[in-house]
Specification:
alpha+beta; 3-stranded antiparallel β-sheet; 32% strand; rod-shaped
């Protein structure tokens, strides 16, 4: 009688090999899943940055002064900018303010501010923003940016002229406290 079967040693070898294969597959899937999660977080960061910079880039080029409208760069709070702009057939007074306690960029606006008392509506739209800076930049003689003194010309009290450009620098932070810097330069066609 020829009995063919598995011995205990053979069974233990098969279970050991199967355990190694399962462990390797688990490692491969975990690595892939972690990479996918990191790319999702990074994609969200980039989308938030794009939303913030696109919104500011749409509104700021229409900024103007005159007729009661002013352009304000605020020295004590370099994370704040306020201006009057014209788009979509209306005038708006817009203010961007970083709420550093919640890492949220807030956009306040009031339609037709020159003709009425200012009554802002708040919109929270930039989540994860850990820092924002507005630099007011005239072009220097060599085509580069002007000196620090020229930059500060637009910081402080309300003024009646516009800078040639505004450099917007933002940093977004993910849940692991990694910061991602972004910046753009917005030219103001209504500057003198």
């Amino acid at each position: 009688m020829n009995r063919r079967g598995l011995t205990l040693i053979e069974l233990m070898i098969v279970v050991g090999i199967l355990g190694i294969v399962v462990l390797m597959l688990n490692t491969v899937f975990k690595t892939g899943f972690d990479a996918w999660n990191k790319s999702e977080v990074r994609l969200e960061i980039y989308q938030n940055a794009r939303v913030v910079l696109d919104q500011i880039s749409r509104e700021l080029p229409g900024a103007f002064v005159g007729g009661g409208a002013e352009f304000e760069g605020i020295n004590a709070n370099p994370d704040t900018i306020e201006f009057v702009t014209s788009f979509a057939g209306s005038l708006y007074q817009i203010q961007y303010v970083l709420d550093s306690t919640t890492n949220t960029l807030k956009r306040y606006y009031d339609e037709n501010p020159v003709y009425s008392a200012i009554s802002y509506t708040e919109v929270k739209f930039g989540s994860g923003v850990s820092d924002i800076q507005f630099l007011y930049l005239p072009l220097g003689s060599a085509g580069g940016w002007g000196s620090a003194d020229e930059q500060n010309e637009w910081i402080g009290a309300s003024i009646t002229t516009l800078p040639e450009a505004v450099k917007v620098k933002i940093k977004l932070r993910d849940k692991e406290n990694n910061e991602y810097p972004f910046e753009t330069i917005i030219y103001l066609p209504n500057s003198e």
